[in-house]
């Protein structure tokens, strides 16, 4: 049993803590524009600083995040999204020229009809006119209904982040191929955690959160990271990407711009795309909304 004086000491200590909390609430409430002790405080000025941050716990001065109006239905673009393809035209894109047009940006020749854009075999990859670094990306795609070929020849395309880091698009419905090349793989680096593929012809979603690499003085300072959700199923969780996409080799990072175009790969199969939108990501505490 504890000595009585200790119990009294604890009780007294508790009272002091409660009194301090009441005073703190009162002080914070005073700083709120709505005033009055019966109102909930909108922040504090006397709380401890959060370790590793410049802000106090519940800091009244911490920037409040700006408002974003979500899409009316899941999958629809929120108010701050850049809509890259809305089913009507490919005006946000250019096609990478081939052969005599290599290195040139050409008008897009992929087929646009019935609300989707379909890859035309033997034509070029397409790239956005807009450039992106850290981003959230929503893409819907469908493999050709008619199954042709096998392994990497079946419904192959790809989401090339910054035109070089590929999240694989492939018909992975009963289609055996190497693990780091199936649908949702960080191509050549990491297989998806699971195979969440739908059947050929069915619309599938990718929701991709991407952190661009950082370079300084020609050296990699921070590698890229990616989170990928396929049809609502997590495939990668803040996974480090080891380098650019390559086939049968390991490619090292080469310094590039902080923002680069997003690219869709033409792998000579009639993969379809629709409802493509992106959000440029901003860091914590960079908003200043009232
Ligand atoms: Mg591919």
Question: How would you summarize what this structure contains?
Answer:
Helix content is 10%, strand content 29%. It has 1 helix and 16 strands. The protein has one helix at residues 4-31, and strands spanning 82-85, 93-96, 105-106, 111-113, 116-118, 126-132, 135-142, 157-161, 165-169, 204-211, 214-216, 219-222, 225-230, 233-240, 260-264, 272-280.
CATH uppermost class of the domain at 82-280: Mainly Beta
The chain-level structural class is mainly beta
Q: What ions, cofactors and ligands are bound?
A: magnesium ion
CATH architecture of the domain at 82-280: Sandwich
Q: How many distinct beta strands? A: 16
> Rg, please?
26 Å
CATH homologous superfamily descriptor of the domain at 82-280 = Exo-inulinase, domain 1
Mean pLDDT: 91
Distance between the termini: 54 Å
Uncertain residue ranges: 1-32
Give the amount of beta strand, in percent. Answer: 25-35%
Largest sheet: 8 strands, antiparallel
Give the overall shape.
Answer: globular
CATH topology of the domain at 82-280, by name, is Jelly Rolls
Helix-strand topology string: HEEEEEEEEEEEEEEEE
How many helical stretches?
1
Helical content class: under 10%
Description:
The protein is mostly beta strands and 290 residues long. It has a domain at 82-280: Exo-inulinase, domain 1 (Jelly Rolls), CATH 2.60.120. Helix content is 10%, strand content 29%. It is built from one helix and 16 strands. Strands 1, 4, 5, 7, 10, 13, 14 and 16 form an eight-stranded antiparallel β-sheet that branches. Strands 3-2-6-15-8-9 form a six-stranded antiparallel β-sheet, with no helix packed on it. The chain has a two-stranded antiparallel sheet with strand order 11-12. A hairpin with a 2-residue loop joins strand 4 and strand 5. The longest helix is centred in the first third of the chain and has 28 residues, at 4-31. The protein is globular, with a radius of gyration of 26 Å. The termini are far apart. Magnesium ion (MG) is lined by residues 156-158, 166, 168-169, 265, 267.
């Amino acid at each position: 049993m504890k000595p009585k004086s200790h119990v009294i000491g604890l009780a007294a200590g508790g009272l002091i803590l409660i009194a301090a909390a009441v005073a703190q609430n009162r002080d914070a409430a005073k700083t709120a524009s709505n005033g009055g002790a019966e109102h909930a405080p909108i922040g504090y000025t006397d709380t401890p600083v959060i370790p590793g941050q410049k802000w106090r716990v519940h800091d009244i001065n911490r920037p409040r995040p700006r408002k974003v109006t979500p899409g009316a239905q899941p999958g629809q673009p929120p108010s701050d999204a850049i809509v890259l393809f809305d089913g009507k035209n490919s005006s946000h894109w250019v096609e990478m020229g081939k052969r005599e047009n290599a290195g040139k940006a050409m008008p897009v020749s992929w087929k646009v009809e019935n609300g989707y854009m379909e890859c035309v075999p033997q034509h070029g990859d397409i790239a956005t006119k807009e450039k992106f670094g850290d981003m959230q990306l929503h893409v819907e795609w469908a493999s050709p209904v008619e199954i042709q070929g096998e392994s990497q020849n079946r419904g192959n395309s790809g989401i090339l982040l910054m035109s070089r880091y590929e999240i694989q698009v492939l018909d992975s419905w009963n289609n055996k191929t190497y693990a780091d090349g199936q649908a949702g793989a960080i191509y050549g680096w990491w297989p998806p955690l699971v195979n969440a593929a739908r059947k050929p012809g069915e619309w599938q979603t990718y929701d991709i959160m991407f952190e661009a690499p950082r370079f300084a003085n020609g050296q990699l300072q921070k590698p890229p990271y990616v989170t990928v959700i396929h049809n609502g199923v997590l495939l990668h969780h803040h996974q480090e990407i080891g380098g650019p996409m390559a086939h049968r080799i390991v490619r090292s990072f080469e310094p590039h711009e902080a923002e680069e175009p997003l690219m869709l790969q033409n792998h000579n199969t009639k993969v379809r795309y629709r409802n493509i939108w992106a959000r440029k990501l901003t860091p914590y505490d960079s908003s200043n909304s009232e």
